[in-house]
Amino acid sequence: MSITIKLALVLTFALSVNAWAQSPETPAAPTTTTQRPERDTTRTRPVVPAVSPEVTERLRRFRENTIDPNEQQSTRTASVTEASMRPARLYSPPQGPLEVNIRRGSTGESLTLMLIDRNGEVLGMAKDVQGRVNLLEVISGIDSLDRAAWLQLVQADQPLGSPIVIQPIREPPPVRTTRATRPNSTTTFTKIIGWGDQPLDADDPTIDEARKSWIAGDPPIISGFKIYSDMDVLIRTDHGEILVALAPDEAPSTAWNFRTLARDGFYDRSGFHRVVPADREGKPFVIQGGDPTLTGNGGPGFALALEPSTLAHDYGVISMARADEPHSAGSQFFFALGREGTARLDGQYCSFGYAVSGSRVVDSIAATPIANIAEGRPANIPVILTMRLVAAPARMPGIDRRQDRIKTTTKVGEVAPTAR
Known about the structure:
Layout: H1 3-21, H2 53-63, E1 84-87, E2 91-92, E3 99-103, E4 111-116, E5 122-127, E6 131-134, H3 135-138, E7 149-155, E8 158-168, E9 175-181, E10 188-195, E11 198-199, H4 205-210, E12 225-229, E13 231-237, E14 240-246, H5 252-263, E15 270-271, E16 274-278, E17 284-289, E18 317-320, E19 333-336, H6 339-342, E20 351-357, H7 359-366, E21 370-372, E22 377-378, E23 383-391
Antiparallel strand pairs: 1-3, 2-12, 3-6, 4-5, 4-7, 7-8, 8-12, 9-10, 10-11, 13-14, 13-23, 14-20, 15-23, 16-17, 17-19, 18-19, 18-20, 21-22
């Protein structure tokens, strides 16, 4: 073979290799990373999230239900919203690590973590955070939480994205019960009178007598932590939409169960099979759903331990339906229609969230014509089309989100306006 031919073959092979290396299917060459400079922890800025006019405007719009729960929390620039936070894992042991992954974003501005309780009180703070962060090392007291709290990422006085729920894992205290008779009836039922060694009504003399026979349960301990992004549940019905905020601080296992069933499609194409707009005394009562069979007897195939929620059964509050046995709830739930008729449910049923939009929908379902008054059976069962999870809004210091619970659009005795 001549030298000319050999050179031509070599040149052809080289050109073909070069062309292959630039193909889109070719993995990019690894890039070298530079060592980040040592962090200067003295150069942090104070965080005053509530003074931002943008935050104030967003909060106003949220309270007036004119804001999309999925809308970005900041409208400043796209680069600012690149900062983000997510849990490293769902479960963590008691001793940790309890970790979140924090991406700083392209602006390089300092990021702050704020641990906020349900009342809006700041329980702890960590400044200038980034990367993989062990919360037990940067926020003191987090290991002694007695109920769920919210971890909010803040940048330049602006809360970013949805918060993360930090939930200590612990067993509920033993439930204390007695047999009681319903008012104006001879029917008896199992009445809850206390939790652990604490009575529900300290002024009830019959409870004091019953306490003498209570056997002390095991002392409560924290078995670890559950850490996850805060989500609301959007209930789409043929009457409209209801947006529910969950309360893991009150009933963590119950709220998680409802969230999981909603996410996985258990409630899709079910409905509100029981509608009781008023009790025997004419006071607003409940609308009940969550049974795929629409008979009132269906469930998810398991039962939940009753949790001692203190969230009052008021209008828009969502709670678990159950049988007479305290630990018999599974999937069926109800919305309270008014404090006048549902105050007696406090402590007897487990409330785990509250609607923050959809009052006209709740009232419309409550106004559904009833075919069987004794059973509360609607003539046409309001349908739950789907349920899905949507990002919860940012938690803000000094703000209790429960004050954004919906208010009824009707008065007692009025017929609710239709939302169809």
